[in-house]
Design a protein that fits this description.
168 residues; 10 strands; mainly beta; single chain
């Protein structure tokens, strides 16, 4: 029986740089979009100075675009919410950067604290609300870029489109 470990036999793969895949300039898979959101969340210098809070409406700022995708930064003061909606033909990744947001779906309600991520496909219906007493900040990646946000009156009701709307 050989007592040598695989690492001793093969060496450290990170030391063989020509075998590592070059990171893509732009994400192309769900995992890469999740990774993009996570890396932006961890690097507060890319977004923290941009955040604004507006007592009358949710504030949002397009942080980045790439081939077919958009990244949005949103702030939520206590009581602000998105309304029940979906994201049309876009898939997305929602990442809570600061505070706590509540997500409501037909399956139930869940608190999303800083660091929490939700991945969703086209047609995913939800409502996001700041039910907490402190402001919250979230990051949203959409692929393809968000072009519509159909609003719903109940989980199984007909949707009505709000042109140009940007939300969770």
């Amino acid at each position: 029986m050989n007592s040598d470990s695989d690492l001793q036999i093969a060496g450290d793969i990170l030391e063989v740089t020509h075998l590592l895949q070059t990171p893509r300039e732009h994400p192309a898979t769900v995992a890469e979009f999740v990774g993009l959101a996570r890396s932006l969340a961890e690097d507060r210098s890319q977004w923290e100075h941009l955040v604004r809070y507006d007592a009358t409406t949710r504030w949002y700022h397009r942080l980045r675009t790439g081939p077919g995708y958009e990244v949005w930064l949103l702030s939520w003061v206590p009581g602000q919410g998105s309304g029940l909606h979906d994201h049309g033909r876009s898939s997305g990744v929602l990442t809570v950067l600061d505070g706590t947001l509540t997500e409501r779906t037909e399956r139930g309600t869940r608190a999303l604290r800083a660091g929490a991520q939700r991945v969703f496909a086209p047609g995913y219906v939800h409502e996001v609300v700041n039910d907490a007493l402190e402001p919250a900040v979230s990051l949203h990646v959409y692929y393809p870029g968000l072009t519509e946000m159909p609003m719903h009156t109940a989980p199984h009701c007909e949707a009505r489109a709000l042109p140009g709307a940007v939300t969770a």
